[in-house]
Target: Branched-chain amino acid transport system permease protein
Amino acid sequence: MDTLLNLTVSGLVVGCVYALVAMGFASIYRATGVLNFAQGDLMLLVAYTAYSVASTAQGSFAMVLFASLTTGVVVGVMLEYLFIRPMAAEPLFSKVMVTIALAIMIRAAVVLFYGAEPLAVPPMLGTAILRVGTVALYPAQLAVLLMLAASVIATSLMFNRSRLGVEMRAAACDEGAALLAGISVRRVYAIAWALAGAYAALAGLACALLFNLDPTVSSLSLRAFPAAILGGLDSVLGGALGGLVIGILESYAGGYLGRGMKDVVGFVLIILVLMIKPYGLFGTRRIERV
Model:
């Protein structure tokens, strides 16, 4: 039982990173229909930004959090304004290819500036172990859990209780009708990219808290993609749940079936979900007349 509990907590912590990345995927796809394959590399950029700030700010978590969120949001908006908005009239495939190119550019810039060797982030929250019954948690792990919880609560309130959330849902449902209702769809798109940047910022900060940093950290986005599929590509909160589920399943697979199965279980789940419920658990089923 102790092993099960510890594997569950470990899976939840890693699942928080997957959840934040999946929420970024979903926020852009919900608003624009574009799969942003630069999400993981934006997370990588913010993780290294957190490392730089933590190294110069004597490990001040508040300053690192502020710098991470600012970097993620600003870079997200800049990417939309400089690269995606000029492609508005282009086919969807072209926009997706632009995001792949952006991913390569961001990763190359990070390697050029920081190098490819692993970097240890200075501790920001201490190393004292917190024990809840038989479960042991580091302060960094608890902080990651709290960051996801705060993100889910804020996202839920924004989409369900604010005018901005109504506008985003309207633009996602019917762009033409939203324009006729006086909603600025361009502004909605920019906000969607800003949100994706914020989620990438929190995911990058989580990586900085949990792992040593190297350019392969961006590959976590590929393991978070099954979470977005599971929750539904157009469901931001569904992506959060999907990330936690994938994280727990990976932890169980690694603990009970061997490390090799840990990397496979998410993609096996993708195949099953696409066969049974292709729109995900909370995705919107689209009906098209032909």
Remarks:
- The CA atoms of residues 42 and 200 lie 6 Å apart.
- Residues 2-114+124-276 form a domain with the ABC transporter involved in vitamin B12 uptake, BtuC fold (CATH 1.10.3470).
- The chain has one domain: 2-114+124-276.
- The beta strands are 130-132, 135-137.
